[in-house]
Each structure stands twice: as structure tokens, then as C-alpha cells.
Design brief:
alpha/beta, four-stranded parallel beta sheet, 6 helices, Uroporphyrin-III methyltransferase, YeaO-like
Length: 174
């Protein structure tokens, strides 16, 4: 997942580009931004945006309050959409702020990454004693291929041969 300022040139490697500001970036023409979606409602509320004022001293309070806003509709539904998009490929969150470290896209990326980590359950590690592991492996390697009593692999079908092509004694099928 990438973060990019709206004033940076779009690139093919950006993948799906989403503007995550409530307001359109100043001085940027709509045809030059090259976004796939504009999710206005996922941006911080006007009240929160004004109280933050892009002051790094207010960053922690802003981030905490914005996380709360992301848990409520309509923002939470939009986060779901972004998580789904991130699972499909590269997702770029586009924002207009000058400060690359203290803006809503940073908090939003953190939230999406948390959701992606929860969505990927990890398989528990197999607990096999170290001395037993080689024996289990050796048994698996030495085991014969599962076959039926007639020597054919399980699930294999007997080839049918026409009587004219048959050689040797005739065998009755079961």
C-alpha cells in the first residue's frame, strides 16, 4: 500500500488510486490527478480537520479521534472497500497535506493494514518432537503408493480393450 501527495505525478505502479481527502486538493485539476475513486466521507470531519490544523503537536489527539471516526459509518464501510481493494492489488491513498508524516492517510493506512493482518489467519505450527520428525519423514518416504489389491492406483480405471485386440487368455471382469 502506498501513500502519495496529490501533487506528485501518478505512476503505473500506483495501482488503484483513491483520494482520501474531504476537500479537493488546491490547484489540482481533476483531469490531472488520475484517481480511480474519491472517498470524501472517509476523510476526517470538518471539525476534526480544523482542530488539528496540521499542527504536529496535536497529532496524537487527531490520530485517536480520527480512528474513532473510521469505526463509524459511512467511513467504516469505506474502510471495508479499501481493505478489499488492497487484497486485490496495489492500493495508493492520495492526500493533499504538505506534511507526509502527520496526515489522515497515515492513520488510514495503519487501520487498513491492521484489518489485513486480522484477515490473514496464520496456521499453527506443527508440534513434532525433533527426534520424531526424521522417523515420520522416513515412514512417509518408505510407504508404498496407495494401491488396490490388484496393483492399480486407487481411483484408476481399468482400460477396456476390444476383444479383437486382446491377446492372451480371456479374463473375466468383475
Amino acid at each position: 500500500m502506498l501513500l502519495k501527495r496529490a501533487y506528485e505525478q501518478p505512476e503505473a505502479a500506483d495501482g488503484y488510486r483513491v483520494l482520501v481527502d474531504r476537500l479537493w486538493p488546491r490547484g489540482v485539476r481533476k483531469d490531472t490527478l488520475a484517481i480511480d475513486a474519491w472517498m470524501k466521507e472517509i476523510g476526517p470531519s470538518d471539525e476534526l480537520r480544523r482542530s488539528f490544523g496540521h499542527d504536529p503537536a496535536r497529532w496524537e489527539e487527531f490520530a485517536a479521534r480520527y480512528r474513532e471516526e473510521l469505526r463509524r459509518q459511512p467511513a467504516s464501510g469505506l474502510v471495508d472497500e479499501l481493505v478489499a481493494q488492497a487484497k486485490r492489488g496495489t492500493l495508493t491513498l492520495v492526500y493533499g497535506a504538505k506534511d507526509e508524516l502527520h496526515n489522515q492517510a497515515v492513520v488510514l493506512r495503519e487501520r487498513i493494514e491492521q484489518r489485513l493482518r486480522r484477515a490473514r489467519p496464520r496456521a499453527p505450527a506443527a508440534r513434532v518432537p525433533a527426534e520424531a520428525a526424521p522417523r515420520a519423514r522416513d515412514r512417509a518416504l518408505a510407504a508404498p503408493h496407495p494401491t488396490s489389491s490388484r496393483g492399480r492406483a486407487l481411483g484408476a480405471t481399468k482400460a477396456r480393450v476390444s476383444p479383437a485386440r486382446r491377446t492372451g487368455p480371456r479374463v473375466r471382469s468383475h
